[in-house]
Amino acid sequence: MTTNPPAPFPVAAGARLLGEVIAWTCSGVAVTHPALVAALRDAGLDDGVARELAPKHAFTRACKKLSDQRIIRQVAEDAATVRFQFTHESRDGDRFAYTLETLLALDKTTGQVTCDLPGLATLAQEHLDHAIDARSGADVTRVIQKLFDRHADLFPVRPQGGVYFMPDRHTGFVDRVQAMLGRINGQILRFPVPGGTPEGDRSVKESVAAGLAALVDDHRKAVAQFGDDTRDETLKRAASKIRVTQFKIQAYAEYLSDEKAKLDRELTAARDALRQKVERLAAVLAVA
DNA sequence: TATGCGCCGAGAATAAATAT
DNA sequence: ATATTTATTCTCGGCGCATA
Question: Closest nucleotide to A225's CA, by C1' atom?
C-alpha cells in the first residue's frame, strides 16, 4: 500500500466536487418571528418562507401551556371570533371531577383574548402573544426545507430524511442558508463529495436517481388520478411539472450515468400517460 | 356557489438523548 | 433499567384562495 501525501483542500486540481452531503440541526433553537425574517433577509434569502402565525393557530400552541389541570375545547367560531370552553379537571377520590371554568373569546384578527376571569385572561394573552412571536427548531427546519424546495434540489441520503446530498451547483445557496442559520444559532454540517471515488460516485448516483424516480412516480400517480372533473389548469400544471423533472434529469445526467436511461424511459411513460389522458378527456368533453 | 389545490398545523410514529 | 423530553418526518384534515 502506498502512502499518499495529504491532499490539500479542495481535493486536487482536476478532481471537481460532485456536491456536498449536508445535515442541519436547529436543536433547541428559539427565535422570534421578526428575528427569523431578519436573518433570512440579511442572508439574501426569500423571507416569504417564514410566515406569520395566525392568532387562531397560535392559540392552539398556547393551549399546550394552558392545559395543565384543564381541558380546552373550541365551542364556536364565526368570521371574527373563536370561542373556547375552559374546564377545570381535578382529582376527586377515585375519579376525576370537571367544573366549568370560563368561556374565552379570541379575536381572530387582533389576537385579543377576552374572558370574565381577569387572571386567566392575562395568562392566556401572555401565552398567546408568545406563541404568535416564537419559532421553534421544528419551525426553522420547515423553513429550511421550504427554501430548498423552492430554490435548490436536495436528495435524501436515507429514506427517513435528515441527511441529504446536494449537487454542487447549489453551493452558493447553501452558503446563504448557512449564514442564516449562523444568525439564529443553528448549525449546518457540510461534507464535500469529490468526484472520482467509486463509492462516492455510486452513492451520489443512487441517491440522486432515487430522488428523481420519486418525482417521476409522483407524476405518474397524479396523472392516474385525473378524471373528467380535473380542470384544464391542473393538466397544464402537471405537464409543466413533468417538464421541470425532465430538465432535472438532464441537468444531473453526469451523476446518473447508467441510471439515466431508465429514468428517461419512466418519465416518457408518465408524459405519454398524461397526453393520452388529455386526449381522452377532450374526447369525452366533445361528446358531452 | 362549488371545487380543486396549496398551505399549514396537529398528531402519530420513531429515534435519540437525558433524567430518574 | 425505565421514564421523559426533544426532534424529526409523514400523513391527514381544515382553511383560504382562485376560478369555472
Answer: B4
